[in-house]
Design goal:
single chain; mainly alpha; Rna Polymerase Sigma Factor, Chain: A; sigma factor; RNA polymerase sigma factor; transcription regulation; RNA_pol_sigma_r2; DNA-binding
């Protein structure tokens, strides 16, 4: 398996550049996908992810290997950085555009099914993008990153009951945004 995150962090603190590259490489995709889902902007998410890893490197000497879980710690930095971004005038002034992931089509696949899958993704992404920021953050951490409520609480700094409330409200709002739901729409279409 290689070195653990904690072992890499100890080496980074002693100046090992290769350990830093390995740690970033190991967690880059997770952080980027979290930021992208939170912001809804593919290009912006790259910039914010770079900034997050710079912040991480600057504060790595404060990370407690004995108490911490690095995944939760880097997601906490990511969450705080995105919250800071959402407070900026740049965010408030810009128009948000959706960047839908392309679906690769193989010749043996049914194009109708692929279009329905893509349409479902677009609907879900749009519904998540319409959630209030704190609900969107809780939903993404819970369902896209498979974190427990306690871990989400540690990342966001909010009480577990607050996280539960955000998840409940977020799911309720998603159901409202999606109408009868994706599967309900597909059932009536056939």
């Amino acid at each position: 398996m290689g070195q653990s995150d904690n072992e890499l962090i100890k080496e980074i603190i002693y100046g090992n550049q290769a350990a830093m590259e390995l740690l970033v490489k190991r967690h880059y995709s997770m952080v980027h996908s979290f930021v992208y889902r939170l912001t809804g902007d593919y290009n912006l998410s790259y910039d914010l992810t770079q900034e997050i890893f710079i912040k991480m490197m600057k504060s790595l000497n404060r990370y407690d290997c004995k108490k911490g879980n690095f995944k939760s710690w880097i997601l906490k930095i990511s969450s705080n950085h995105c919250r800071d971004y959402f407070r900026t005038s740049i965010y408030k002034q810009r128009n948000e555009f959706s960047d839908i992931n392309e679906v690769e089509i193989k010749s043996d696949e049914n194009i109708i099914d692929l279009l329905e899958i893509k349409e479902d993704r677009i609907l879900v992404k749009s519904a998540i993008d319409n959630l209030p920021t704190l609900q969107r953050e809780a939903i993404i951490l819970k369902y896209y990153h498979d974190l427990k409520i306690k871990e989400i609480s540690n990342i966001t700094g909010d009480m577990e009951n607050t996280i539960k409330s955000r998840l409940f409200s977020g799911i309720k709002n998603l159901k409202k945004y999606l109408g009868g739901g994706i599967h309900e729409k597909n059932r009536h279409a056939r």
